[in-house]
Structures are given as C-alpha cells and as structure tokens.
C-alpha cells in the first residue's frame, strides 16, 4: 500500500468512527429522552377508549382499568365509549391516535375475530402495541327454563332430534358469541338457528322471555339471571370450570377440545415509547394482584390475567388465525 492509499484508508476509518459516534450519540440521546418522558408521564389526563356501548362486560373491565390507573398515575383516565363494527371503529380511533401514551384502548376477545369479518383500516398486528391482557374467563351457556335441557349432552341430543328448531340468541351477526356458538355446533355435529340482536341486552331479554331458547352470554351479564332462576346455566365455554360457579361443567367435558375464552386487554398505537408501555403494564400488573381487584373480577366470573406485552401480542396473532379458520368453516358474514 502506498502512502496515498494509506492516507485514504485512514481517512475512511476516521469518517467511519465519526459516523459511528454520531449514530451512537443520537441513539443514547433518544433513549434518554424516551426514559425521561416515561418518568414524567403522564402530565395530562389520559383517554381510555372502550370500543363498545356502556353497560356490558367490556365496559366493566375498561372502567376498572381506568380507575386503577387514575389512582396510581396521578392523572385522570377518562373513559370514552365508541361502539360499532364489533369494536373495530373504536379500536381504529385508538390506533390512529398519536403514539404518546395518552390514548389507551381496551380490546376484547372479538378483536381477533374482526379481521375475518370486516375491512379494517389498520393492520391488526403490525399497527398495534400490546400492553397487557387484563382478564380471562368463559362465556356461560344458558337456556330458557322451559327447555327440557339440563346439560350440554341434553342440548346436543335435543338438537339432533329436531335439527334447526332450537333458536339461539346473540349480540349480533359475526359477534364473538355468534362464532363461539357456531364453533360448538360444528364440533358437536348439530344445527341450531341463529337469531341476531343489536346487543347483549335485547338478546338476553328475548331468551328470558322464551322467544329464543339458548344463549352463550358473558358471565357478567348472564349469571345474575341464572341465579335469579330466569335462565338455566348448563355449561361454560373454557376448558376448565370457574370458581364463581364450580358446579357448572365445561363444554369440553362433553365435547373434548372445545375451548373459547372471553378476555380483555389494553393496546396502544405502534411506536409508543417502550418505557411508557412498560409503566402501564407494571401498574396494571400490580392492580391485578390486588385482592380487591381479584374479588371484583371473580364476582363477575372472570379471573385476572396479566403477563408481558409480548405474551399478549402472541395470543392476539394466534387467535386471529384460529378465528379465520372458524369463520371460513361456518361461512359467517358480517352484516
């Protein structure tokens, strides 16, 4: 190597070192700014979007989360209900908000169903940052007391005897309970007639009135009517029984392999600083271990979940693929 080449090589190395130091400096500066931002976060009220109407199980979980965060963050967490399209409309608002930690979005088990039913204006995996899974629990299978059915085995036998004559109510076409019921029917080899309503309230009202005879309802909304004798609870949809009703068997005890979980969790938009994601995760994780919180959730038939953002994200991706197959098999279309 001659003197000129040697000088040129030295110059290139010097430039490379300078560029590396500059890049490292920018990275450290950005990291410190992110950490500093998280340490002062929040400096103003935070919004919690609940993409469903007030009064249901999702609203209950979302308001618990908002209350807990209000107590520990030092700022009010304001609940904003934005229903529509199985929750997709409200989630879209949340995911298109600035990724600064000031908009949290509650999602439910319907979230991984929606990509198979609706044209979404956001990517349900790539445009989100999962924060934490809040709860998990079953749906409760209930029938009108006049129906000569006391077990899932009875329900299957009656349906096979008279295919299509049993009517089941749901909160809407393409809802999670619609698909959970169709999934059960497919696995059990039976046929029931779907009667969709615009919400859980009217579906329950007509089942209590005997206009429909079967419903897969959330524990929070359905169990009180079972305890009052207005409906008969015959099974839960999770693989295991639940503490709130230990005498009610799971569907899986009769139809092996059936397992549908009703869950809720919190998302923020992709790009939200990781220290803020970790802060919200940590605060809600602590809340979920609080005895009062556990008792409130279990009283409504669900259990605290918790876990890392990565674990929650893996669940979302896994269930998107599961429900895509079930939607295709059942031939379900959104309204």
Q: Please, could you describe this protein's structure?
A:
- The structure is a single chain.
- This protein has about 325 residues and is an alpha/beta fold.
- It has two domains: about 40-135 and about 260-330, 3-Layer(aba) Sandwich (D-Maltodextrin-Binding Protein, domain 2), CATH 3.40.190.150; about 140-255, Periplasmic binding protein-like II (D-Maltodextrin-Binding Protein, domain 2).
- Helix content is about 45%, strand content about 20%.
- The chain has ten helices and eleven strands.
- The protein has helices at about 5-40, 55-75, 90-95, 150-160, 175-190, 200-210, 220-225, 275-290, 290-300, 310-330; strands at about 45-50, 75-80, 105-110, 130-135, 140-145, 165-170, 195, 215-220, 230-235, 260-270, 305.
- The protein has a six-stranded mixed sheet with strand order 2-1-3-10-4-11, with helices on both faces. Strands 7-6-8-5-9 form a five-stranded mixed sheet, with helices on both faces.
- Strand 6, helix 5 and strand 7 form a beta-alpha-beta unit.
- Helix 1 (about 5-40) packs parallel to helix 8 (about 275-290), helix 2 packs across helix 8 (about 275-290) and helix 5 packs across helix 10 (about 310-330).
- The chain is globular, with a radius of gyration of 25 Å.
- The model is unreliable at about 30-35 (pLDDT under 50).
